[in-house]
Design brief:
alpha+beta, Mannose-Binding Protein A, Chain A, 2 domains, 9-stranded mixed β-sheet, 4-stranded antiparallel β-sheet, 4 helices, 31% strand, binds calcium ion
Length: 274
C-alpha cells in the first residue's frame, strides 16, 4: 500500500465531447482543478456562460489565480480550434470597482494580463483571447449582457486535492492500495510516477489526508505508507523531502527504537483516527 503526492502542474487527459445543440467541449486536468473548454453554435452573454458551467455540479467560470494556471490555460486554448475568445470568471461590480475573480482569491490581481489597449472600458465582464492580434491568452473587457461570445471556460475542483495553500502550492494526492508492499517498494512506485510518498508539513494537510483515508474502503486498522523515515546517520525522523518533522502524530508508545519507516493508520488500536 502506498500514498503518493504530486506537486506540479500537468495535463493528465484530453478528451473531446460533442453534445447536443451544437456545443463542443474539451476536458483537461491541471494542478488542483479540472477544466472544460466550451464552444457553442449560438452566442452567449457572460451570465449564460456562467450558468452553463454551474449546471454541472461544483463548476463555475474559471478563476485564474496564479501565473501557472494562466500559462496552462493560455497554452491549452492556443492548441484548440473551437473558439477565438472565451468568457472567464473575471468581472467587476461597476466601472469604478476593482476586477474580481468569482473565487474571490486575488493572488494574481495586481498585474492582470490585459490585451494591448484593454481594458478599454466597454464593460464589466472579461474574456480571454486565444491569439487575437498576437494577444496570446490576454484579457478583454466587454459588455456583460450582450450575446457576443461563443466560448467559455469552466473550472471544477478535483477529488483528492488539498487547496489550502492556494493554487501555487496545491498538491494532488493518489491513494494506492492494489497490493501490500514494503515501504521502499512503495516509494519506488511513487517515484516511477514522478511523485513521492506524502509529506505532511501542516496540521491542515494531516487533517486532509486523515479525512481521505477514513473514506477509503479497507479494513478498520488499515495502514498507509507515508514519506517519513529514520535517517540512518542521524537516527532522526525525517520527511522524504529533507524537511524536519513539525507535527507530532505518533501513536502511543511509538516510535520504537527498532523502527525505520512509518505508516499512517486509518484507526489505531486505541481507536485514534489517523
Ligand atoms: Ca483557479
Ligand atoms: Ca474591451
Amino acid at each position: 500500500m502506498n500514498l503518493a503526492k504530486l506537486r506540479v502542474w500537468i495535463i493528465v487527459a484530453i478528451q473531446v465531447f460533442h453534445f447536443g445543440a451544437g456545443e463542443t467541449f474539451k476536458w483537461f486536468k491541471g494542478g488542483c482543478s479540472n477544466y472544460t473548454i466550451h464552444a457553442t453554435s449560438r452566442r452567449l452573454n457572460w451570465e449564460q456562460s456562467r450558468q452553463a458551467c454551474k449546471k454541472t455540479g461544483l463548476g463555475d467560470l474559471v478563476s485564474i489565480e496564479s501565473y501557472a494556471e494562466w500559462l496552462f490555460l493560455k497554452n491549452t486554448i492556443l492548441n484548440l480550434t473551437i473558439a477565438d475568445e472565451y468568457f472567464i470568471g473575471l468581472r467587476r461590480d461597476d466601472w469604478n470597482r476593482p476586477w474580481r475573480w468569482l473565487s474571490n482569491k486575488n493572488t494574481f490581481q495586481k498585474d492582470l494580463p490585459w490585451a494591448t489597449g484593454e481594458p478599454n472600458g466597454d464593460g464589466n465582464c472579461a474574456t480571454m483571447y486565444k491569439n487575437y492580434l498576437r494577444n496570446y491568452g490576454k484579457y478583454n473587457d466587454l459588455n456583460c449582457s450582450r450575446h457576443t461570445i461563443s466560448g467559455y471556460i469552466c473550472e471544477f475542483p478535483v477529488d483528492g486535492c488539498n487547496q489550502e495553500d492556494g493554487d501555487k502550492r496545491c498538491s494532488c494526492y493518489t491513494f494506492e492500495n492494489d497490493m501490500p508492499m514494503q515501504w521502499p517498494r512503495a516509494e519506488d512506485s511513487c517515484k516511477y510516477n514522478n511523485k513521492h510518498l506524502v509529506v505532511m508539513e501542516t496540521e491542515g494537510e494531516w487533517e486532509f489526508i486523515n479525512k481521505e483515508i477514513q473514506t477509503r474502503n479497507s479494513s478498520k486498522g488499515s495502514e498507509w505508507h507515508i514519506g517519513l523515515y529514520r535517517n540512518l546517520t542521524t537516527r532522526k525522523w525525517t520527511w522524504i523531502n529533507g524537511k524536519t518533522v513539525t507535527i507530532n502524530k505518533w501513536q502511543r508508545d511509538k516510535p520504537q527504537d527498532s523502527d525505520f519507516y512509518t505508516v499512517m493508520a486509518k484507526e489505531s488500536l486505541d481507536g485514534v483516527k489517523g
